[in-house]
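hey so i finally got around to running the thing on that chain from the lab meeting. sorry it took forever, my laptop kept dying and i had to restart like 3 times. anyway pasting the input first so we r on the same page abt which one it is
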Amino acid sequence: MKKLSNLKKQKKGITLIALVITIIVLLILAAVSIATLTGQNGILTKASESKTKTDRAAAKEKVQIEVAGSMGTDLTVDMDLLKDNLKKNLGLTDEDITENDDGSITIPVDGYTFTVSPNGKITDNGEVPKEPEKVEGSSLDWQVNEAGDTIIAYIGSGFDGDTIVIPNCINDIMITTVGNGSCIFSDKQDLINDKKLKISNEIQYIGNNAFIGCSTLIGDLDIPNTVKTIGHGAFMGCTGFNGNLTIPEGVKEIQDSAFFADKFSGKLEIPNTVEIIGNSAFAQCGNFTGDLYLSKSITKLGPSAFANCRGLNGTLTIGMINTNTSDQIAPNYFLGIRFKNLILEDTVRIIGSSTFQSQHFLEPKLVLPNEVEEIGQRAFCDCSFEGNLVIPSSVKKIGLSAFYGNNFTGDLTIPSSVQEIGETAFAYCNNFDGTLTIGCSIIPSSVFSSAKFKKLILEDTVVTIEGNVFTSWTNLKGELIIPNSVTSIGSYAFAGCTGLTGELIIPNSVNSISDYAFSNCTGFTSIKIMNSDAQVDSLAFNGCSVSPTYGN
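ok and heres what got predicted. didnt touch it at all, straight out
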């Protein structure tokens, strides 16, 4: 009997476990079924999308039929006949038909809008815009300007609930702007303590200083996607806001100090609709985290735009066509930030003056974009970049001290595309230890000061070697070949290059060699100057082991 009792208990235990497993399996299957039905790629979603496409195609087909019926023998549309047919067959009214300056008309059909040109082309403009949802406010609570479309101040006595709603309609006039140079709560700060802020849709401009100093507003800041401009100091000192800050698609301009010294604690997302970011727009927002992306749409970036946003510790990605659009020599865009790494997109054409000066990265690797044309003065000065540096063949100009003081290693090639290169452009890049290949026509003074290259190749596009270019490069070894394109060699150009050996042949193209150009180059076994008429200063080869000979 005990065995039978134990067997029954075991069966009950097994049955209970099986029941639990069955329930878990059913729950999983139910979740999968719900996701299959309602997910982003679910059956119901796909069915809805399919119906939308079908309805849209059907609406366009109706327009096509009317256009075909209004086409003349010259294959152009009789626009007056088309309008009559649209009214007769599709039930449109004169108010439904919008006549455009180019002779086309725009019409609504079954919830979609289409533009028809006189040549018969039909453009699908998408769904008919919905009427804006009105969020009414009282003139007893909100003071507006004379036109009635701008909120100037809050004059009410308080707010119900934990959220302040900025209305988009007062006295039946739609509000387009909030703020007109001063804080709308300047006299009512005691009423906004620990309140959240909701700005209604349809508002297009957040005016200068609209919420400046509203430090007791809290929560996330949700800016509607109808906003186009965020004005000077609009949210400056709003230190109670937290979380991410997402600038919505549609915003074109973020003006000076718009978010200065705020304390958002999440990511900063700037859409590719933004064209202008003003001076110190996000400066001192030290709690932002993660990456920063500046798209090619940005045409102006103000000085100190992100200065001391020290929490930005991810990737800095830049697509701007010109990275320095300010008038400042040192814009200090990213002062005080140490990003993980830097990505320059292929849309970048000009790396402007001092854009990244003294900027340090946790992963100090620099890859220049393939289409960049100009690298401005001090653009990457003192950035401590490491590894190889490749100058693309698209580069035409390298400015003064552009790469000064970095830690690049290996070889370096200056392509023949470079038409101008500034003094000290690569000065004190002391870790280059490979071959230097130069193709630019003019090699200016001191451009490679203190470099330690082991080999030098001068391409046949080099014309002028100015003074003090390769002075005291004791690491250079082997023969020096001067191409037949060079016409002049400046003072101290190769002075003290004691590692150069073998025969030095100065080609027939060279017509001037200045004093001390090759002084103390003691390794040459012979020196031949092919142009007997060349102007050679008396001290050009001072201290060399051998004297030069002329002609063949």
